[in-house]
Design a protein that fits this description.
Blueprint: E1 4-8, E2 13-18, H1 25-38, H2 40-49, E3 57-58, H3 67-78, H4 90-99, H5 111-123, H6 126-135, H7 141-144, H8 147-160, H9 203-206, H10 211-223, H11 228-242, H12 244-247, H13 269-282, H14 292-305, H15 309-321, H16 328-331, H17 346-363, H18 374-377, H19 386-401, H20 409-417, H21 428-440, H22 446-453, H23 463-470, H24 477-507, H25 511-515, H26 528-563, H27 573-585
Parallel strand pairs: 1-3
Antiparallel strand pairs: 1-2
InterPro entries: NPH3/RPT2-like, NPH3_dom, SKP1/BTB/POZ_sf
Keywords: Coiled coil, Ubl conjugation pathway
Pfam family, one: NPH3
């Protein structure tokens, strides 16, 4: 006689000892028959292991899927004991049945057919499909049987479908019920449909999947035509769950989708690095689908985790393509380099800005720059082009990094000069950044001061900025002269406008003459010619006064250039500044 010995207590095997010493031959045959009649593998192994000398025969099933628990359920099934099929054990039973060759050739309604029928029911339910897919992570045989792909396709189909077709709640519990309290066998309700269902209802469930399965899930929903905004939303949710460095940043305090009672172990740094790189690859390529804030947070986290250069370059290109949607707070990325010269990563922002300008230049290669009047800029942001928004952002960034004493002049110049002149209709912001830089770097020589001041256009300074610049001792003398010169030019334009108005008034005629209407001889009627003449005389007197002040200012500027004295002569110009202000107000 022989003995069947199965050792499966270690990892993926189980031990059973059948010895004929304790049973009669008839009972022994009856005991082993149910197993052999249902499993083709066991029948072959026992036939090959039969020994004529009656020595003990040992069979080891180390590769049995599901281990001891699965084999116990298989044994109960063979002996006719009722077993409970659930979404948590169905995959292991299906794999074990395939491994043991329990097909229809060894009995009608064998375990393969039974588990396949129940799997189809599992795939029709969202919650059961999520649980079944989770068990596939430790069962490599599930991939060979296409259980993983079938389960992911089922989930992708439900995630892409109209959420109003599903009962509420769709996920979160095994007993899905409709608002009326009717249990739904497959999670689909045809009565009492909710008025509205959030499109992100499935984010939380799929976030518990492992990264390989989650990647395949995202690829499946994208192939089924899901909106890029929803794909990006799921990726953001997944990243916030498994990247603790992103949750520590101030802009990510939203925990609406995270269950407070759920504790997620912190992944290792290597796992977080791999996760971040995969998320970047999965992000939709469409501009504006993923928020610039999230992309900048990803970029900052990528620098901390030291991801690959390809990953960081990808993020920089994505941010550069929609830099006009960024805010200054998120652009202040700390310097993570080994040789930390500056507090913030200036080089990273420079690369982002260069990519933005290259994209914009390609888009408007055949179009001329847009000229926007200063008056329209005050009406609201609707008139601001992307270049103007980025110019304001860069000027604000320069003002933040200017006080850094380690910031070199070439870096400051390169970043400021990357923005074209037409993108700055008003140069007050860049002047403010230059002033802060000069204040933090008092050791700059005159040539360097003049060099950095070339970044601004004195002609585009507002009245307040011009007043401040005329009294700024940190500016080179040549720049102050330019500011005064353009103010004089602006004043001349005002004077010319007064002359034009006065000439039009002098040459104008009474409207009644042009219409041929006779004049009445009222006693209190004022002669229009006398009224216009008095107005012209008064205007001419004001114009002459303005011309005298302009001439006085011009003489003062000439004196300033010839004498080349130091800054103690600057306060004398304040008198003329106040006069020019009165002229402008008049």
């Amino acid at each position: 006689m022989w003995t069947l010995f199965m050792h499966a207590l270690s990892m993926a095997s189980m031990q059973f000892l059948f010895s004929p010493e304790f049973y009669s031959p008839l009972f022994w045959h009856f005991f082993q028959f149910p197993l052999l009649s249902r499993s083709g593998l066991l029948e072959k192994l026992i036939e090959n292991c039969s020994n004529e000398d009656g020595s003990r025969c040992v069979l080891q099933l180390h590769e049995l899927p599901g281990g001891a628990k699965a084999f116990e359920l298989v044994t109960k099934f063979c002996y006719g004991v009722k077993i409970e099929l659930t979404s948590l054990n169905i995959v292991s039973l299906r794999c074990a049945a395939e491994y043991l060759q329990m097909n229809e050739n060894y009995g009608e309604g064998n375990l393969i057919a039974q588990t396949e029928g129940f799997l189809n029911e599992v795939f029709s339910n969202w919650v059961d499909s999520i649980k079944a897919l989770g068990t596939c992570e430790v069962l490599p045989h599930a991939e060979d049987l296409h259980i993983v792909s079938r389960c992911i396709d089922s989930l992708a189909m439900k995630a892409c479908a109209d959420p109003t077709l599903f009962g509420w709640p769709v996920s979160g519990c095994t007993n899905v019920q409709s608002p009326a309290g009717v249990v739904l066998w497959n999670g689909i309700s045809t009565v009492n449909k909710p008025q509205s269902v959030r499109e992100d209802w499935w984010y939380g469930d799929v976030s518990f999947l492992s990264l390989p399965f989650y990647k395949r899930m995202m690829q499946a929903v994208e192939l089924r035509g899901m909106k890029p905004e929803r794909v990006a939303g799921s990726l953001i949710f997944y990243a916030k769950r498994y990247l603790p460095l992103m949750n520590r940043q101030s802009s990510f305090k939203d925990t609406n989708h995270v269950n407070p009672g759920t504790t997620i172990p912190t992944p290792s740094e290597a796992d977080q690095r791999a996760l971040l790189e995969d998320i970047v690859d999965l992000l939709p390529n469409q501009k504006g689908v993923t928020s610039t804030k999230f992309l900048l947070r990803l970029l900052r986290t990528a620098m901390i985790l030291h991801t690959s250069s390809l990953c960081r370059e990808n993020l920089e290109r994505r941010v550069g393509a929609q830099l006009d949607q960024a805010v200054l707070e998120d652009l202040l990325i700390p310097n993570m380099g080994y040789s930390v010269e500056t507090l913030y990563d200036i080089d990273c922002v420079q690369r982002i800005l260069d990519h933005f300008m290259s994209v914009e230049n390609t888009a408007v290669a055949t179009a001329s720059p847009c000229i926007v009047e200063e008056g329209k800029l005050m009406d609201g942001p609707d008139f601001l082009t992307p270049e103007m928004l980025v110019a304001n952002l860069v000027d604000g960034y320069l003002a933040e990094v200017a006080p850094d004493v380690n910031l070199k002049l070439p870096k400051f110049q390169s970043l400021a000069a990357a923005v074209p002149d037409y993108a700055r209709p008003v140069n007050d912001s860049i002047y403010h950044a230059i002033d802060l830089y000069l204040k933090a770097h008092p050791w700059l020589i005159d040539s360097e001061r003049e060099q950095i001041c070339r970044l601004m256009n004195c002609q585009k300074l507002s009245l307040e900025a011009s007043t401040h610049a005329a009294q700024n001792e940190r500016l080179p003398l040549r720049v102050i002269v330019q500011v005064l010169f353009f103010e004089q030019l602006r004043l001349r334009t005002t004077v010319s406008g007064w002359f034009f108005v006065s000439d039009n008034l002098a040459n104008s005629q009474d409207p009644n003459d042009n219409l041929g209407i006779p004049k009445t001889d009222g006693s209190h009627q004022v002669d229009p010619e006398q009224d216009h003449g008095a107005g012209v005389d008064d205007m001419r007197e004001r114009v002459l006064e303005l011309e005298k002040e302009c001439l006085s200012m011009k003489q003062e500027i000439q004196k300033l250039v010839k004498m080349k004295r130091s800054w103690n002569i600057i306060p004398k110009k304040l008198v003329f500044r106040q006069k020019s202000q009165r002229c402008n107000s008049k």
